[in-house]
Amino acid sequence: MDSSWPENLATNRENVIDELVRGREYATQLQFILHEPLGDHGTVPAEDLIVKILRSFTKTLSLLDSSDSGEVSQNPATTNVSSPCFDDRRSENSGESRKSPALKDGRGGYKRRKTSNTCTKVTPNPVDDGHAWRKYGQKEILNAKYPRNYFRCTHKIDQGCQATKQVQRIEEDPPKFRTIYMGHHTCKDTRKASHLILDSTPRGSYFIGFESNIPTKHDHLFPSIKQEHREEIPSDITQNHSSSDYLFSSDLTTFDTSVPTTMLGSDQGDVISGLYSCTTSSRSLDMGFMVGSMDFDNMFHFEDDGFFLAQS
DNA sequence: CGCATTTGACCTGA
DNA sequence: TCAGGTCAAATGCG
């Protein structure tokens, strides 16, 4: 971020902050209600709050959109910042556009995605985002020491989930892995939600847990991913920072808050920006929140032009 | 036997 | 033209 937001953006920025603060308040109220679901709040107020929260986010996004935040996307893809998280490129649907009739083996024929709408994350070890991934390719990259690994959601076939990610080791000594998320999970991966709920609920607190810093031996690079499913979140999540990382990024993101909500605005923002560089050029925010025992990721999806309730 | 990974071929965008 | 992204046959593993 360079410190120079255009002046006319200053107001916009204030508005954005204002909206975010408001949204946070709504979320806090909602959290309160969720803790007493049987109270006299009933479900209607909760839904009402949800609507307000969504509206707040929408407004924020549109503000950001209008200001065309020049702060982000100037980062090259090689940094840990990248363009928007939500990936609408999937409309082209890589696999389905195989057309070339004269294919040997019937291979190839896909539409290569453009490098847009991705969310990049750099971590000390391959991440587990709670989703099930299946490796579908590996490629040596020019000028890169390590090959890049390509993963798609395991539910691509059965649920048509279009989420993919690329994982590449970028450093050896302090091990560093760059994970690029693309696409949007449309699958219902109940595993993630249930784990998160189970793990976090008892604590009753909130906190953003990201990377598991448990040093893994990358004997084969992505032990966790290889299993292609579930790295469970160890139940001793308290003593270790939560082991799975719960991203703040497109879809793979789950916001595991475990810090008092009052902290949400400031400190965690730093944490987030340190690990993730998901850019939200507005339209592409897709975050999942863990509030109390509720996984927002299962409730909302942030779509291109707003949000919609995905039900719960 | 079913499913995941490996790996070389193929295709596309720059 | 080439680097990168994806496909799918072959292979391995549980």
Give a summary of the structure in a few sentences.
Its main location: nucleus. The protein has helices at residues 7-35, 43-67, 156-159, 190-200, 223-226, 267-275; strands at residues 118-123, 133-139, 148-153, 164-171, 176-182, 255-256, 276-277, 289-291, 294-295, 300-303, 306-309.
Low-confidence stretches: 1-9, 66-106, 190-274, 279-312
Count of alpha/pi helices: 6
Cα(first) to Cα(last) distance is 36 Å
Strand line-up of the largest beta sheet: 2-3-4-5-1-7
Q: Topology as H/E string?
A: HHEEEHEEHHEHEEEEE
| Radius of gyration over C-alpha positions, nearest whole angstrom | 20 Å
Number of domains: 2
SS strand fraction: 15-25%
**Major sheet details:** 6 strands, antiparallel
Number of beta strands:
11
Q: In oligomeric terms, what are we looking at?
A: single chain
Per the principal axes of the C-alpha atoms, what is the gross shape? Answer: elongated
**Class from secondary-structure proportions:** alpha+beta
Q: Please tell me the overall pLDDT.
A: 54
The proportion of residues forming helix, as a percent range, comes to: 25-40%
Region (Disordered): 66-123
Domain WRKY: 122-185
Organism: Tetracentron sinense (Spur-leaf)
InterPro entries: WRKY_dom, WRKY_dom_sf, WRKY_plant
Annotation keywords:
26% helix; 312 residues; DNA-binding; 2 domains; disordered C terminus; alpha+beta
